[in-house]
Amino acid sequence: MLICLPPSEGKTPAPDGGAPVDLTALTAPGLSPQRETVLDALATVSVRPDATEILKVGASLADEVARNTSLRTAPAAPATQVYTGVLYAAAGLGDLTGPPAALAADSVRIFSGLWGAVAPTDRIPAYRLSMGVDLPGIGRLATAWRAHLADALAERASGDVVVDCRSAAYLAAWKPPTEGERAAEWVTVRVVRDTDGRRAVVSHNAKHTRGVLTGHLLRRAGDPPSSADELLAAARELDGEIIGTEVGTGLSYRMIEATLSAPASRRGARTLELVIA
C-alpha cells in the first residue's frame, strides 16, 4: 500500500529553536538536487514585489511568502506537524505510535511543490508554494517534478496498490505506471454525498473523509491492502460508521457505501467511491 496525499494549503511553522531542514535526511534523497534548485528559485521569487501574484496567493499572506527567503535556516518539524489541514486532522498522522507509525513512514507520501514528496516523519519548515505554480527559473512545477518523482517512486509503487487522495495539480506531477514491469494498481479516492438517492461530489467533507480513510488504513488490524480489491474490503469496514460532523450545522454524517469502478482508460486509475450521508 502506498498512500499519496496532497499537502495542506496552510502550513504551521515549527517551534523556534528547532534544527533546520537537512535535505540529505529527507525521504528519497535522490530528489535533493531538484529540491535545492526549487529552494533557490523560490527564495529568489519571494523577494520580488509581485511574489504573491506569482505564487498565486492573496496579499494577506505576504508574511508567509517572505518566510520562503530563509527556508534553509528556518526551524523544521515533522511533516505531520507542519501540514495541519482538514485531511491531516482527520487522519491523525501525528498521533500514530508503534506499528501504525512505522507503516505510515513506509506507506504515506505527501506531495509538495517544494520537496517533491516527503514521508510523515520528514522534518521540513513551513513554506508557501503550491504545485500549480509556474515558478520563474523552473517552469510549471508539476512538469519540473515529473521525471524526478517517477524515478523516486517507481520501485516503491511497483506491484502494490496506490491509494491516491491527491488533487489534480499534484496528480499531474506523478501518475503510477499501470502497465509494464513496474505496474501498480492505481486507485483514486472520490467522495460523494447521498441526499435522498441523489449523489453529488463534496469538497470540505471529501478532505475529511479521505483523512478518515487514511487513518483507518494505517490503524486497522491485519496486513495493509496490496491490491485494489483488498483496499475496497478495507474501506467497507467503515460502512455505517459516523465519520464526521458538518461545519455550521453540527450534524453528523456516516459512510454508507464504498464501491470500486473500472479505469476509464488502459493507463488510467480505478476509482474508489466513498458515499456519505
* Cα separation of the termini: 27 Å
State the helix count.
Answer: 10
Mean pLDDT: 95
Query: In sequence order, what are the helices and strands, one letter per element?
Result: EHHHEHHHEEEEEHEHEEHHEEE
Secondary structure class reads: alpha/beta
Largest sheet: 9 strands, mixed
Helix content: 25-40%
> Overall 3D geometry?
globular
Low-confidence stretches: none
- Rg: 19 Å
Q: How many β-strand runs?
A: 13
In the residues, how many domains can be counted?
A: 1
- Residue share in β-strands: 15-25%
Structure description:
This protein is of the alpha/beta class. It has one domain. 32% of the residues lie in helices and 22% in strands.
Short description:
The protein is α/β, with parallel strands linked by helices. The chain has helices at residues 32-45, 51-54, 62-67, 79-82, 86-91, 98-107, 141-157, 168-171, 204-219, 228-236, and strands at 2-5, 77-78, 108-112, 116-118, 123-124, 134-135, 139-140, 161-164, 185-195, 198-201, 242-245, 252-261, 270-276.
List keywords for this structure.
277 residues; two-stranded antiparallel sheet; 32% helix
List the helices and strands and how they pair.
Elements: E1 2-5, H1 32-45, H2 51-54, H3 62-67, E2 77-78, H4 79-82, H5 86-91, H6 98-107, E3 108-112, E4 116-118, E5 123-124, E6 134-135, E7 139-140, H7 141-157, E8 161-164, H8 168-171, E9 185-195, E10 198-201, H9 204-219, H10 228-236, E11 242-245, E12 252-261, E13 270-276
Parallel strand pairs: 1-3, 1-8, 8-9, 9-13
Antiparallel strand pairs: 2-5, 3-4, 6-7, 9-10, 11-12, 12-13
